């Protein structure tokens, strides 16, 4: 635990340090650029002033007494600069003269001279024209040192101020991390202000605190988007967890009933069934029936689990919905003589999909109508193409669905109050399976129902081409 805290502090420090270092480096290079520009501008201005002064003296023949017959050491100005100088300065050799000796640095700097060797007598001799630039250099260097000291003080002062500014800027992220961490704590413990690894914090969220949400000030637009994304993720996690808890609870409840029945009949067999043939047969039939119910429930759970894991592949091909609807009605009518079945289908109503899964969905809807329609009732199945949709409708005149339950009929294990007694033998998973199949085929289902009047379910598939 202590090591984690130390690690978080090092990470927090490194982020602040990096951001602060980046900021100070930008300021440093800005100062450096300004200093270089100042040196270039000062040097250029000083040389130009010296050239102008020497040029006037050469023009007026007011030069020094220093003469030489040999070409002195020095440098020539680039050709493009000579064009800006008077003609009598052409061929002049320049040099900086720095006095030697044991005098102090400032004294020698003050005596620096800018010398121009001017040719005459056809370039056979040179005479010198000096301009004292030492006093200007001394003044500039002193001012430059003052400026440099100011810049250094500014940078040193910016280390602490910059770090505090960065921490203030990152404070909303610390609030996000602290709020996320408080989700997995039963009590809110106030930590020191420090930047946490938000991803690692979310990984440790405890499901008992998923109702907590991250808040941020409205003016923090970027962080508000981050908080919204985190809250959306927590909403999905919370919904998924609650759905999982409800699913496990309902599945356990559904399995508990047949297990209890099997256990009860097993006890009955153990006590009296060995010699009582009637009790023996009753127990065998009950156990077989409950085992079949458990098998159906497990198969439905397995189907939904595969669907949730996206491991079920669809065999997409042109499917005639009319033919499938007629097959489902014909097969259901063979085993259910207590209802009247009517089909109203066009000849060819095609979509692209998995024929077996679509047939399974149709069978679920028809079977559902059969369960909740009293004997003698009518169940009508129709199929038709309307514009770009292929529509299949299953309608009955059964007991209907209460309006308060319509929004939940596709929830897993949901059964309305009228069917909760399990008189119809349903598990509450059939409509969930059919809804999954419909969604995977990019279809839309509409349910219209009235209490004691009946229910109409319409599935709209994208229309497809006919089979060739």
Structure notes:
This protein has a five-stranded mixed beta sheet, with helices on one face. The longest helix has 58 residues. It folds into three domains: 212 residues, no CATH class; 64 residues, Signal transduction histidine kinase, dimerisation/phosphotransfer (DHp) domain (Helix Hairpins), CATH 1.10.287.130; 146 residues, Heat Shock Protein 90, CATH 3.30.565. It starts with a helix and ends in a 6-residue tail after the last strand. It has ten helices and eleven strands.
Class based on secondary structure composition and strand pairing: alpha+beta
* Biggest beta sheet summary: 5 strands, mixed
Q: How many helices?
A: 10
| Helix and strand pattern | HEHEHEEHHHHEHEEHEEHEE
- What gross morphology would you assign? elongated
Number of domains: 3
Report Rg: 47 Å
Low-confidence stretches are: 1-13, 184-205
Task: Give the N-to-C terminal Cα separation.
Answer: 68 Å
> Overall mean pLDDT score?
77
Beta percentage is 5-15%
* β-strand number: 11
Relative helix content: 40-55%
Strand order of the largest sheet: 6-8-9-11-10
């Amino acid at each position: 635990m202590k090591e984690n805290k130390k690690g978080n502090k090092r990470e927090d420090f490194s982020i602040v340090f990096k951001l602060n270092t980046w900021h100070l480096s930008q300021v440093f290079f800005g100062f450096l650029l300004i200093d270089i520009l100042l040196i270039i501008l000062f040097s250029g201005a000083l040389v130009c002033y010296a050239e102008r002064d020497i040029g006037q003296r050469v023009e007026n023949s007011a030069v020094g007494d220093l003469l030489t017959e040999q070409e002195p050491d020095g440098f020539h100005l680039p050709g493009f600069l000579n064009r800006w100088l008077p003609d009598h300065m052409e061929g002049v050799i320049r040099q900086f003269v720095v006095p030697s000796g044991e005098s102090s640095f400032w004294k020698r700097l003050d005596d620096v001279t800018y010398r121009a060797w001017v040719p005459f007598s056809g370039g056979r001799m040179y005479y010198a024209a000096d301009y004292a630039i030492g006093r200007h250099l001394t003044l500039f260097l002193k001012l430059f040192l003052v400026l440099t000291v100011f810049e250094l003080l500014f940078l040193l002062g910016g280390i602490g101020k910059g770090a505090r500014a960065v921490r203030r800027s990152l404070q909303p992220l610390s609030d996000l991390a602290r709020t996320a961490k408080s989700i997995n704590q039963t009590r809110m413990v106030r930590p020191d202000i420090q930047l946490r690894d938000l991803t690692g914090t979310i990984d440790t969220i405890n499901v008992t605190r998923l109702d907590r949400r991250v808040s941020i000030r409205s003016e923090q637009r970027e962080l508000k988007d981050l908080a919204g994304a985190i809250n959306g993720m927590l909403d999905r996690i919370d919904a998924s967890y609650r759905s999982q808890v409800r699913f496990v609870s309902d599945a356990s409840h559904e399995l508990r009933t047949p297990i209890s029945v099997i256990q009860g009949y097993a006890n009955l067999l153990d006590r009296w069934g060995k010699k009582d043939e009637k009790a023996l047969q009753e127990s065998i039939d009950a156990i077989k029936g409950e085992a079949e119910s458990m098998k159906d429930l497990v198969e439905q759970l397995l189907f939904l689990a595969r669907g949730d894991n996206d491991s079920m592949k669809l065999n997409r091909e042109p499917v005639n919905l009319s033919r499938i609807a007629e097959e489902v009605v014909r097969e259901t009518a063979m085993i259910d003589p207590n209802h009247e079945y009517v089909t109203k289908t066009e000849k060819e109503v095609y979509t692209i999909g998995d024929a077996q899964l679509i047939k399974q969905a149709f069978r679920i809807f028809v079977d559902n109508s059969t369960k909740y329609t009293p004997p003698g009732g009518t169940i009508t199945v129709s199929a038709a193409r309307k514009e770009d949709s292929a529509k299949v409708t299953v309608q009955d005149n059964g007991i209907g669905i209460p309006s308060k339950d319509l929004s939940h009929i596709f929830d897993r294990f949901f059964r309305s109050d009228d069917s909760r007694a399990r008189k119809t033998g349903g598990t509450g998973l059939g409509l969930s399976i059919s809804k999954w199949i419909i969604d995977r085929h990019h279809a839309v289902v509409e349910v219209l129902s009235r209490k004691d009047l009946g229910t109409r379910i319409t599935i709209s598939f994208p229309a497809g081409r006919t089979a060739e």
